[in-house]
Each structure stands twice: as C-alpha cells, then as structure tokens.
Amino acid sequence: MLLLAPVLASCAPVPATKETGMPTPDFVRGGVRVTEHHGGDDLLSAGLGLAGLAGPPAPFAHPLSPTAEELRRRAIQTSWQGIADLGPLGGFGHVYGAVPNVPGREYQAFAWLPGAHAPHRVLLQVPDAFDKSRRCLVVTASSGSRGIYGAIALAGAWGLPRGCAVAYTDKGAGSGYFDLAEDSGVTLDGTRARRGRAMLEFEPSADTPRQGIAVKHAHSGDNPEADWGRHVLQAAQFGLAMLNQSFPDQAPFTAENTRIIATGLSNGGGAVLQAAGLDEDRLLSGVVALEPNVRVPEQGRALFDYATEASIWLPCALMDTRFDKTPMARTAKGEAPPAWVERCHRLHQHGLVSGSRVSAQSAQAYQHLRGAGWTDEALEAAASSTALDLWRAITAAYASAYMRRGPADMPCGFHYAAIGKGGAPGAADPAMRAAWWSDASGIPPGNGVGLFGGADHSADPTLPGALCLRSLWDDTDPSTQALRDGIDATTVKAPRASLPLWVVHGASDGLLPTAFSSEPYVQWLRSKGGHPLYWKVPYAQHFDAFLALPGFGDRHVPLLPYGYAALDRLWAHLYEGAPWPALVPTPAPTPRGEGALTPATLALPPTWTSGPG
C-alpha cells in the first residue's frame, strides 16, 4: 500500500490489481479510479460539513474548467441538497442525522451489464475506520435519475460513520449529459472530453445528428429501469472486490463473511427491491427501501400510468376550492395559475369534463383522480410536482427509455437542447456545461438544458404532449407496444421469504403514492409467504428537500429519520442478535407547524441497540 500512496494522493486512476494481486471484476472497463480523501476533503461531505452542504454552491476556481476535486465536492453537495432538508427548521444534525468528518478512500469505475449499450457508474467509499471485526457493506442506488452520489444522504450518512463501506450505483442514469453539437461527454472523474479522447459515461452513436443534448437515462437504448436490480447486485460485487483491494491481508470479502445491507430511496428504493428479487446468490443480508418506485405483477399501477394521468388531470383538479390553502397550488397572490384554469377549459373541449364553469370542471377532475385511487393526502402533496412541471419531465424521459429511443426520435416530438436566447434551443453555455455532471439531476429541464416539443402556443401549451404520452399507454396499436413491453420488463420479482425486508413510505407521498407502489408490493409479498415490515408514515411526503420551502414543511415531517431508524433495527438484528420482529408499530408523528422540528414531532421509537425498543 505504500507504493500506492503517491498516486492516491494525486487522485489519479490506479490499476489496483498490480499492487495487491487482487482481481478487478471483469464487468469493469477502463480501470478503477482510486482517490484518498482526508483532512479538508472527506467521504461524507467533501470537507464541507453540515453548514457547507446547506450553503451556496461550492465554488470552482475556473468555472470553464473545474477540477475533478471541485466537481466531486459540488456533486456531493448537490446530492445532499436534493434529498435532505438541511434548512434551519428541519432538524438535521441535532434532532436526527449527522455529518461527521469521515476520512477514507474511494474506488470508482464504469461497470457494464452484458449486452448494455452504456455503462453504469459504480463507486465504493471505504472509511479509514472500517470495522474489520464487523464487516459491513451497504449497497445503494441513486434516487431519481441522479448521479453516483445520489444516495449519499441515506446510505452514506448512515453507513460511513458506523464503519461500513458503502457501494453506490447510478443504475444507468446520471448527469453525464452529452452535448451533441460539441461532441463531448463526461469522463470517469467528472470532467468533460470529446468523443474518442477518453472513455465517457455516455455517448450516443456517432451518426446521431449533431444538435441538442443526449441524456443517458432517456437515450442509452438500454431501458435502465429494467436492470436496476442487476445494477445494484453488480455494485455489491464491485464493493466486495474493492474491499479485497483495500485490505488484501483480510481478503477475501464475501457474502459469507461480510453483511451486505441494501438501502435506497425513491427509484433507488425500487432498485434495491428489484435486487432482492434477483438475489439468487444470497448476497444481501437485509433490505430497507424508502418510498420505492416498485411495480408488482398484476397489482398496483405503473409509474408511467399514473404519472401521465396526473399530468393531464391534476392541473384542473387542483383548481378545486379544497386546495385553496395547499402549498404551491396557488400563486404568491393566492390566485390560481392561469395555465391550470385553461386546463379545465381544454379538458372540457376534449369532452373529458362537463359543465361550463371551472368549479364544476375541477370537481369532476378531482373525482376522476379519486376514482383512480388517489387519496386527498397524495393530491395535496402532488401540487408541488404539478407546479414544478415534474410530470411532463418524468413521462417524456421515461417514454423514451422504455421505447429505447435516441435523442433525435423521442416519442411525441420531445427533445432536449440547451436553452438559448429567449428560451429557444441554442448553444450550451460553457460554464453550465462544465458543471452538468456535478449539478444536474439526470432528467432535464434544468441547469441550462430544456425539454422542447410536445407543445402548442395556447395558454396551456403542455397539454398536447401530455395527451400524446398518455396515448402511448392507452393505445393498443403495435407502434406503441414497445412502451408497454418496456414497462412490463420493470416488474419486480419476489425475494426469498427469509430476507429481512422493511419498506418505509410517506402516507402523503404525491409523486409515488403508496396505494400504487408500496402497499401492493407489501400485500403481494405477504400473499406469497413473505414477512416484510411496513411503515406508512403519517405526514411524510416524497421530497424531504421541499420541507425547507415556506409553508410546505409546516404540514409535513421528513422521511429520512424513519429510514435511519429502520436501518438501526436491521443492524441490531444482524450484529447484536436482536430478533427480527414480525410487526413494528408505525410511529405517529405530528406536523411540525411553524416552529422547528423536535424529537417529539417525529415520535421515533427508542434507539435499537440490543433488541426491540
């Protein structure tokens, strides 16, 4: 290891097998990048600490050419801010959670599934204080379509201070956007390079028209959601192999001598449940899934189904007076968004609602959604996703992924391009482009990249695209069969009945409502003889980060602390002999109101260290 020190300190790629004699997995291409992180640059916050994570964007000395170290620091900060409520009233760091300094080492690589067109990133963080006496590997997948650090606020924050190594995958998504005009993408260290000059996170075929932006999740041609579980299992295998590299005197690290705990949130939660169902080699010791995007056979509803429904109906339904006090359902002046008023009129024109007044039309739209399984809690929280135009962003990207389309032939005429003068497609801003890997969410619009097409010039311009995307689901025409086949390929399989498994979901989730996802999954497992634990947490919704918004956090509680608590209980079972319970009562939190979050507000169970609380 002394031979490695000068190279590690410089953060250069390292062919680790030469120094340790330990093999690198054959699914890794292009080598493994190994970096040391000490002093002012740790694993959990890149040296920013809690205050820095919550602060303004970490600076780049030269915005047009940020260094790999600067990009990593900002990618970690962006991932924290996208998942956790770090606001002054949110309680992170003193009511629950912490961001201690965790020095250690990172191993990062591009990993390939058989037959894949594009790789997924894998990353292992190994703390210097890795507990060799209680070998622990946490494996996780990014939430949403985020980059490689997209689960650090859950898996990293819980596992690294405990002495666990943490293995991440971006599950075939991520923010390695490809600028077709410049013919450039993102390298392993986050910096940009032109095609042919380095191995890139994603590059479309060379004959793709040289205009617009290509995004891996939408345009790789791999339908990555169908392989989320394989991505997670491959990340676990990568983690074990890199632990062999890191501690050759302790090797081999295997599932027989190392506990592997899988956890994830949102799409990451769905990914670890997919992995549990594919885990024929019994790699996983336990699973905790938060608000998972999961679909079971012949039960629940597919995300694309209820998201396209929401995209069409929610703007009008939210015009109902029952939502007058709902955060983000009205403008700052207390008025209805004009496009939502127009949506009611246009639904009437399409014969989808009757009545000549918006009040009657909105009431019918509301009843339509209630009849489709939406609860009032989910509809209220969904006002945020509707106001932020998330339904259109999600469904346009996912349709392209399911149908395996490229950047030039996305369904319904959609395409991505840099936002130029006057909001029209144009050339990418060089500074924004340099920061895409660290700052972007993996699904445009955002960060100077727009979603174009599928619109008209009316007062409600997004309805044509929404109706077109919905038709892909409803139609039985052979031309749309690829979408339904792509969605069918994402259906989860049941894990072994003996696997400790806990699903934690917010009762007020308006993006992935429990009635369409977690509840059908839990019921399905129980019908097959499984014994999953399930917390449907009152007043928790999908986006903890939204709790810092004025008026939003007053009504809700964060979900992360309940995920940490479930992981604590799993740890007690795996390492301290605590029995795995048949049932754990769901906590009964209360909304925090206008004040700061308190322990009493969360109503968390006692700390589990030697058995049930």
Automatic annotation (TrEMBL):
Single GO BP term? butyrate metabolic process
Keyword field: Hydrolase
* Record GO terms (molecular function): hydroxybutyrate-dimer hydrolase activity
Q: Does the keyword 4Fe-4S apply?
A: no
Output the Gene Ontology cellular-component terms: extracellular space
| InterPro entries in the record | AB_hydrolase_fold (IPR029058), OHBut_olig_hydro_put (IPR016582)
Give the top-rank taxon of the lineage listed in the UniProt record for this protein: Bacteria
The name on file for this protein is: Hydrogenase
